[in-house]
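Write out structure tokens for Aldehyde:ferredoxin oxidoreductase.
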Amino acid sequence: MFGWCGTVLRVDLTHGTLEKKELDPGVAKAFLGGRGLNAKTLFDEVGPGVDPLGPENLLCFATGTLTATTMGLSSRLHVSTLSPYSGIMGDGNVGGSMANVMKRAGYDQIVVKGASEAPVYMLIEDEKVSLHDAGDLWGLDTWATTDMLVERHGKGVCVACIGQAGENLVRLASTMVDKYASASRGSGAVWGSKNLKAIVLRGTGRPELFDRAGFLALSKEDKRFMAEDRVQKEVASVYGSHYGITHWYPGYRNFEKELPPEEVPAQIRHDAWKEYEIDRVGCQSCHIKCKNIYKIPKGERKGEVGEGLEYEAVYCLGTNCGVEDPVAIMEMENLCDAYGVDVIAIGNTIALAKDLYNRGIIDDQVTCGLDLSWENAEDQVELVHKTVMREGFGNLIAEGMYSLAKIIGNGAMDYCYHTKGLGRGVYPAGLFTLAHAIATRGADHLRGRSWSCGENSDEDVLKDLMAKGIITDDPVHSMIHGERVTTLADTIGRCKGAVNTWTCALPLIWKGSLFDGLADMLTKATGIPYTGTMVEEVSDRIGAVERAFNARQGITINDDMLPQRPDFKQTPEGAKEREAHMALVRSWYEENGYAPETGLPTAETCRRLGIGDVADTLAGEGPYSTWDGPLLMDLDAYPKGGKRV
């Protein structure tokens, strides 16, 4: 095969078997790679009623179709599973070096099932794959684990692993790559449930391309444009996602409000972080260097270095939790990376807990003595430790935002602003709420491209596309294009960029069309004559499969909800907002060939997209149990403890 490696590595940890399978050419053509391959695999093999932390769940890693080529920004790896955090499709997209090294080793996808009796790690050295005892690694944080495995297997290897959070089945745990890159939605807990501590990779090959010279010419065009793009030069390379702190209205105190630029505290504004920056770095195959390397100047962790402190950490662990101390935010970021925890998920869950505490719904007895006053950064740092160890109140935080509210009861769910278990805040009906509602992994800032439509973006390419009428301000029209762009970025292995731009996510979009440039690149890479229409259908196919997967986990149209604050929800205006929101959702369904009463692709749509088996499965299995978050364990049944970082 051209473009693809042509190999899927199948790992059964229950039986300790490693098997290489040929990648089905038809599946490759229809789903490309990354998110597409993983969605297809999960739908085919993980049905309704599966425990996310049971051996029947799968852990899927897939490289992009254009990963490890000369195309820039192509280092993204997709990690997918049935999420123990949300109970639905749980996929994370991670940078670093793993995607490139995995593909250079010869694998398009790794699928892990079962569970080992004892801790193991996987070693991949090109065609040689083996499992090894990880008893001496179990209990170590991700930084120490990475250092030990690099020392053991030599420089040049990539290490993906979990820390204590994954081992303790914390539902907020992440897959960590190269110490600092995170794939979230609870995938780290799935590693832990399978007793898989790490994957070590070394790859020395490269994928063969159908027209290498032609592909190289296109990738050079793309790189030249990116090198001169105003947003990349003046914003992404200088500030990275810190730009958003004073431009994207971060949440404040569990989304009590959004902070306009003039209300963002001076010490955490985008330019203030330069005081702690000692260098900048980019993922493999990226020259933009959007990530900062910083050094903590004082306090308990004085002198400690961290990498990739993003906007999401500053707002989710900072302003949305009422914390405005940059040192405390850097400390928590480093703890999350070392322990292997998603900063967004733990930040949102702590923000909810703080809200409940300050409203009197929970008290010091529930929090086991922790003071969750908004301004108390010290006890919040302590709560991060306790969450990872599942100690005291941390054992509840470890269950995630939705499950925490469900367990607490007493009106707690009124302040859990979520869509399908994930939170992005409270907005009036429109572009943002539609993007959050239709996102297949729950409310999300990297689905639907709401941040790059109309007034949300200042990039020149978008202005040109709008002037030509390709992109409009209509929310439904914008989301159709936005979903396609973000899905394809996740499928070819492309980065969406530090400041989330069209030019990053979709190569050659600046030539004036949406998908023809990408189709040309795919044609030269694979030899398959892709067209812009075919590329659109790949995205639509993946989205339909993901929504069908979620339906089997109990998701219905009722879960495409509009989060509202309780005082507004009970008013006539609140009811009108919900009606307006659902009108947009149903319109989006109809435009995509979904049944407006269910939100599922119709049988006709499935057959048009070549996935008639998906429609047949849904018709033959239902009705399904109603979604109410993930299946939970007894809180006393979890593994607990470990060495503090």
